[in-house]
Amino acid sequence: MSEADLATAASLDDAPEAAATVDVLALDAPPAEREGKPMVARWYAVQVASSCEKKVKATLEQRAITLGVDSRILEIEIPQTPAVKLKKDGSRQAAEEKVFPGYVLVRMMLDEDTMMAVRSTPNVINFVGQEERRSTGRARGHIKPRPLSRQEVDRIFKRAAEKKPVVKVDLAEGDQILVIAGPFKDFQGEVIEVSGERSKLKALLSIFGRETPVELEFAQISKQS
User: Fold this and answer.
1) What is the DSSP string of 143-187?
2) How many CA atoms lie within 13 A of 149 on its CB side?
3) Tens-digit pLDDT profile for the chain (225 aa)?
4) Helix/strand/coil for 219
5) If DSSP codes are grouped into helix, strand and coil, which group holds residue 120?
6) Integer distance in angstroms from the first to the last C-alpha of the chain?
């Protein structure tokens, strides 16, 4: 899933957009827990600090054991898809692309202890949920965790399993490149467009004294520092 798929989710903590974000993620309201009924484990989305997904997963797994709630925090997942990272020398390296950058999914039995274990984990921002407005004042309310629907969970993991590998390249518009293979070998130019899905880019090369747009494959170029 591209970053555009979670454009609204990036502002989960902003009160005006909270309700819309919940709709986008297809969250279901949790059933009321009645005394005498067994607790049910459900999937919850948890927002974390940028690039800290793996750190949060490892820390929360350890904290669940330390705090004695590992029987109620059952799974912690970071949905990922295969990717190919193109290095500056043109070589390719297998990698993984996060489906939801900035989020981890936790299958857990929701109670005060498990909520506290998650919320107090370093680099955790909050659960995805609905803000409970305060009755007075303008202070922000409490975020009530809301479980993902079964359909949404299935869709997330199915997409992670079926998505074709994405080519990741450390190139952007304006970067200077050197052509190292093909008919334009040894020409230098400036990147004007990058197409990761096609593993190609367009660059302006100076040919016969004129700036000419040329399409090149990632393997044909080397990024200049």
Assistant:
1) EEE-PBPHHHHHHHHHHHHHPPPEEEES--TT-EEEE-SSTTTT-
2) 11
3) 444 444 334 333 443 333 333 333 333 444 444 455 678 999 999 999 989 999 999 999 999 999 999 999 999 999 888 776 766 555 667 777 788 889 999 999 999 999 999 999 999 999 998 876 655 555 455 788 999 999 988 888 887 776 566 666 677 788 888 888 888 888 999 999 887 667 788 999 988 778 889 998 877 888 776
4) helix
5) coil
6) 31
| Paired tokens of 151 | 């359909």
Please spell the DSSP secondary structure of 190-205, one letter per residue: EEEEEETTTTEEEEEE
- For residue 150, give both structure tokens: 């079964």
Strands 142-145 and 129-132: antiparallel
Q: Which residues pair with 107 in a beta bridge?
A: 43, 75
Kindly state the DSSP code that residue 45 receives in the 8-state scheme.
E
Provide the token pair at 108.
Answer: 């857990």
Q: 23: which 2 tokens? A: 């709709």
Selection from 225, 125, 111, 110 nearest residue 178 by Cα: 225
CB of 149 closer than 8 Å to CB of 66:
no
Q: Answer for the pair 149, 158: CB distance below 8 angstroms, yes or no.
A: no
Token reading at 91:
């070589």
